Amino acid sequence: MLSVWGAVLIFLIVGVIFGVGGMLAGYILAPRRKSAQKSIAYECGVDTIGPTWVQFRTSYFLYALLFVIFDVEIIYLYPWAIKFQSLGLFAFVEMIIFLAILVVGLWYAWKEGAFEWT
Amino acid sequence: MLPMFDGIDWLGVFFYILSAVIVVSALLVVFSKNIVHSVLWLVISFIAVAGIFITLNADFLALIQVMVYAGAICIMVVLGIMLIKRDDMNKTNMFNSQLYFGGAVALMVTFLTGFASYKINYSGNPPMVPENSVESIATLLLSKYVIPFEVVALLLTVTLVGAIYIAREVKADADS
Hints:
Chain A is an all-alpha fold and 118 residues long.
């Protein structure tokens, strides 16, 4: 009998086949006619000016930081959500407090203009 | 199950496949010429580590490994790369004069970890890992360990505030 992780493995294999298969089909079926024009960096069909490697603003990185913080929060939300039915009201209040503390951090980020593009 | 597959230690087979994937992708992280490719190999490495966790029945750890490491940490590394000014690896400090010192440190760490894992006594049967560890974690986290649980929220908030403070400060300096 197939275990739960066997099902996960099948999902993984099908997922890999789905991704790699598309690339492989393109590799086999697509005609290849190389030219100098095709190997330049593509940017909305307009020729690029200057180097394609540029330093981005730190505002992008702030989004990454926020994302990581709220992704770590999922570690705690996930077990709570699994046992939500049997844990009762007390656990619910605890989780609300947990989220409220984190929202303070979000509020600070908002106040500092982390979401603004000036 | 087909009779020809009887008697195969499937956990062992998966362990060796996953270990090979981890080692190869970890080496490719270091040796890739393009740092964006390095991050992609890092994702493969993290997901393979999650597979190792699954073979050890640690389902919750595997989930976190995929969501936090392969998801969030790699996103942060990608956005960190976006802040890098040097496009060519040859312009970085990769080829400096610390080769022998760094090699000695690496050898020492390898020797120490190898020695430590060799000295550990693996005999005896370890206790079985409980099924559905997530539910036990939830029950403990929200009953016995409530205070640490709320402290984690504070810690995350402090991290967030500190990181934003540093990032904003740098930006203000750059603009002036």
